[in-house]
Amino acid sequence: MNTLPFRTLSSWFREQTGQPIRKVPLDNGATCPNRDGSIGRGGCLFCSVPSFSPIAGGGRGILGREKAEPLSPEDLTCAFERLALSMTRGKARLFLPYLNGYTPTNLPLEILAPQLRALTQHPLSAGAALCTRPDMVSDELIDFLSSLVKSGYLIMVELGLQSCDDALLRRMGRGHSVRDFTDTASRLGNIGVHTCAHLIFGLPGQSMENMIESTMVAAGPQGCHGVKFHNFHICRGTIMDEMMKQEPWPLMTLEEYARTVAKAVSLVSPNTVVHRLCASIGREHLSAPQWAADAPAIRNRIMELLQEMHIQNTTSHT
């Protein structure tokens, strides 16, 4: 039973399957269109693949993979099984393969479809989850995902919106628009895919008002079923790291981030699934701010603020 003041991903998993599910991060061998030249080179200004996907970024440095090296369905399912079995010490006996390295959908469907089909059919699997860009979901992929949903698999797609400000997205080198996000979220939602919007709070030049507005776009009528919050931080060796060294600018404090996320969570619909309150990053990857390395402290402060809001709301209605 969920006793938190918002709908959690774990509670949503139980609603769907009646049991706990754990996500298993995987790299299917794709690269990013912002790295392979189809949209840009070098990635987004803040991107460091090893910091958020050690499996995909291992041994490749900050620049990461610039050409696709797709895994066979057999190798991908073997990796899934090995990682899933290493996680069985907890209560979960069902797992969700989670393709989160680079842009997993940046592969021809004749390669991606067999990968997804093999992962969904594995006896330990509940379905599949993909983390991708809003501009990298083709009509053909929509049709294929629809067939998986109709077959009874749990399919989840996480879309990297980051901000609802197109000018800010351009400054960060994202290469997609807010319209790309709303169009893709709608197309996926129409076929029964659970969608989640990835948001970054604290981007350079981003106001608190924009962060709240971005949340309302992400979880609004034209948005997603869920939201995932990410505290902006600078990873070592990234373009943003070099920019900060040359001309430092003030970064969001832990308290500012926690209060903004708490406010955002309090404003979304009770039906919205909050996938995550903050990012986790190892100190070996982090340049600034140092508080970003303490994810438990960030989560705890957000929860304290949400509980205070809940008590105040309850008191005001008695």
Automatic annotation (TrEMBL):
CDD domains for this protein: Radical_SAM
GO MF annotations in UniProt: 4 iron, 4 sulfur cluster binding; catalytic activity; metal ion binding
The keyword Flavoprotein appears for this protein: no
Record InterPro entries: ELP3, Elp3/MiaA/NifB-like_rSAM, Radical_SAM_C, rSAM, rSAM_horseshoe, rSAM_sf, YhcC-like
Cofactor(s), names only, from the UniProt record: [4Fe-4S] cluster
Keyword S-adenosyl-L-methionine: yes
Protein name, as recorded: TIGR01212 family radical SAM protein
Keyword terms: 4Fe-4S, Iron, Iron-sulfur, Metal-binding, S-adenosyl-L-methionine
Annotated Pfam families: Radical_SAM (PF04055), Radical_SAM_C (PF16199)
Radical SAM core domain segment(s): 16-271
